[in-house]
Amino acid sequence: MPNIMEKIKDSILVFDGAMGTLLQNQGLLGEGCPELLNVEEHQALVNIHRMYSKAGADIVETNTFGGSRIKLAEFGLEERVAELNAAAVKAAKSGVSESTYVALSVGPTGKMMQPSGPLTFEEAYDVFREQIAAGAEAGADVICIETMSDLGEARAALLAAKDVAPNLPVICSMTFQPDGRTLMGTDPQTAVITLQALGADILGANCSGGPEELLQVISEMQQVNKVPLLVQPNAGLPELQGDKTVFPLTASEMGAYAPKLVEAGASLVGSCCGSTPEFTTAIKEAVQNMVPVKPGYKPQTYITSSNRTVAVGNNHPVQIIGERINPTGKKALSEELRQGSLARVVQEAVQQVEKGAAILDVNVGLPDIDEPAMLVKAVNAVQKVVSAPLQIDSTNVNAIEAALKAYHGKALVNSVNGKDESLESVLPLVKRYGACVLGLCLDETGIPKMAEDRLKVAEKIVARAVEYGIPKEDVLIDCLVLTASAQQQEVLETIKTAQLVKEKLGVPVVLGVSNVSFGLPNRKLLNRTFLAMALAAGLDAPIINPHDQEMVDTILAGQVLSYRDVDSKNYISAYQNVKNTPQPAAEAPKTTGEKLYQAVVSGLKEGIIPLVEDCLAQDMSLMTVVDDILVPALDEVGSKYEKGEFFLPQLMQSAEVVQLAFSRLRQELDSGAVSKGTVILATVKGDIHDIGKNIVKVLMENYGYNVVDLGKDVPPEDVVQAARENRAQLVGLSALMTTTIPNMKETIEQLKEAKIDTKVIVGGAVLNQSYADMINADFYARDAREAVQIANELMKN
Amino acid sequence: MNIDKNEVLRYLGYKQGKTKISSSMLEKIDYYISLGITLAEPNTCYRILNKINFKPKGVELPEVELVLPGQDISNHLKNCNKVCLVATTIGRQLEDKVSELFNHEEYAGGTILDAVGSDAVEKAADQLQEELKLKAKKQGYHLTWRFASGYGDLPLDINSKLASVVSANSIGITVTESNMLLPQKSILGIVGFSATETDTPLADKCAYCNAVDCAYRNRSDKCAKHNGKD
Question: What Cα–Cα distance (Å) separates residue A772 from each residue in A189, A718, A778, B14, B180?
Fold first, then answer.
């Protein structure tokens, strides 16, 4: 039997149709595991494969869609992966003719991959590896990874297949929704670009909808494919008749569609849910004399995320690479990374994209950090929130590999250079994980001074990449920007290198622009001037800080002047409405007291302690500060909150300021601090939601109450005891759920029985005044603000 | 995962056209949304039940010997041939951080992060919903919106049974004696595979919700709170 890849070059091959539909029609598909039938109903499967083979299928798929460990575990069959997959291949082999290929069907695990779910790349890879090893061992001719929605999962399966069955062609087929994207948001071109870089032999679309829906998907794929395309539509969109699912398309209708699918670019055509051997025959008859359309790929640098493709170079727009996710010189970010937090990384990612970054550099390199682990976390965090493709930036090869595994798209690796050691360690990873790579024009001798010598380094990098099987267009060159303060003479050599690289190599040019201005005043001016010069020389992707609006402006202008923004469309849309009116400065408060008041209202913590001290130095008494400044300020905040002018975080922010002011004031007090009264707070027994209670506590403390916080899930007896011991004037109880209100009632009863002289105030999501009355509470407060008002009213008397 | 900033603001009592926030507060919200995204560990599981009997007292699921009592769940599932029980959580990390923030007197941050967690678990559940929608569609069904205990007359005390049927413990969800979910940012839901078009979710969900006055005091419109999620 000739290799399928040879056969496919000049003929259209026909895939079989649905397995589940036939099993169902025969009453074999119940509640149990479909793959178990490979053993228990072996002959029925042999017969189905025979029917498809006789109907004209050149390739049949095994009954192993759910044959992974994870899927089989749903039926307690996780230890039978090898057996069930082998039996399936055997059934197919014995059913089909000698010239029919058997493809091992590999479906998704059903578990979400990181960052959307818990499954890691390694886990997914191992699970697929196990299944594919079993199928290949049993004699499958082709591996067919199918019905994938998650590009990350498809990557894991594809890599596993390439590793464990290196001699078998691998098909990778995704399933698309009516909006033309997969459930996880991948568009057809991004799927093709990413997966063919990773080494898929055939790509495709299956299931999804009927042939009409898939026609569009295949047409889009055909624009960028290097490898043959497979299409397997369902028999139309399913309809429910009674409690039966019916697929409306007939075999001859499917047959009529098949030539259109071939013309759109498919060279393997089959059918999916709802189809039968009749469909296979109809397709076979319709396409057997057709010839494949040529793949539509034209060399072009593409970098992808799981749901976006960015084209770099040629006449595509200049693509900004955001440089902000890098701890170098950023104290707060470094500190966070050391503590294992990625909040700032995520925030930078979102903001840079908002400012116009097309690609994001991700660097978490710190001397005292587990960089591989951290880079994986950072890549996952960033790809969770933005669609911009990533440039993985590390000098640590292990970190690069770990990140390339976790990343769902076709990344840009930053970087390799002309040193043999660098080329030999980085390029194999770039090839294996289907990435692009940024080559730096430096080698063992350092950064060559002259442009011609830098070009030689660039040529070496490109040549070596090609030797490793990386297409030339997947290499980008960084011509290296030197600082004008130290190497002024060589600044122009960078510009010249850019021109030479574009002219001689034709690969995209990248520059870290802001290096140019180190050590000189007014850096921004130098940066944007250099940027303009570099754009004229053909710079394709500047690495910049996208928050620097002038740089972004320069790029937009530069694209107009270099004919990369045809008809100035982007430029016009960016600037036609821009009119910046300066924001009127808020009226500055005059006296120290007013400043303190204003700081509380605005929630400004900074400088609050000196303000308090200034007040005290002006001979204000403690009570004056509290009663005439802090409390009125809080009242204003509270009243704004009531009116909806402020929302909860503002109330809390002001509370933080007052808390801080109090911490200073307390130092002036004798140990027997004056308190406005004692309040016990508790979330009642059985209830664990205490955020509302915590908010009440903060405000009560703000107003000078001594708060005894008993926490959450507090038994009634504890409340009674605390109220007695602390002689509390007020007890505040909270409950979130209807189910814990009885415990609130019980607590109130015990307080009354114990004859504790205290008032009870209740609150919580499901409470209201009538509930409060029903359980004999003295007061009901809708929110923290109201609770404090009630307390203030009560203490007055 | 995309956290919906407007939704977070809504949870926090922000009122369009009324509430004025400074750019530093917006920055703070962005920061805590980012932090929330890094702390959320979304995980879901579900179980589809193929038999459903409508009884006067509620909906019976004979495969797992479970009765979902009440009129509202019966209405919710009225045209359904199958029921899917779903569980979603974002794990403990985020809520632990909220406590930590409160302990460190970062009240604004704690409140914002808590709201981010509420939206995060909602989004994680919505993601599963999309997956199930596709599954339903393949069989010709429409998916209903997500019903939960605490809506209408469906009592909270079915939570432990729901959790056990769907093996919620496999993703780390436990149910307390008082029927609350741990981690707090978790959801147990009930969706139906309906033979007919179904209603749109959110408006109805709030109308069904028993929590008339949520912790974030959204007085103008009722809050979207439900079982175990604040």
Answer: 60, 21, 8, 27, 21
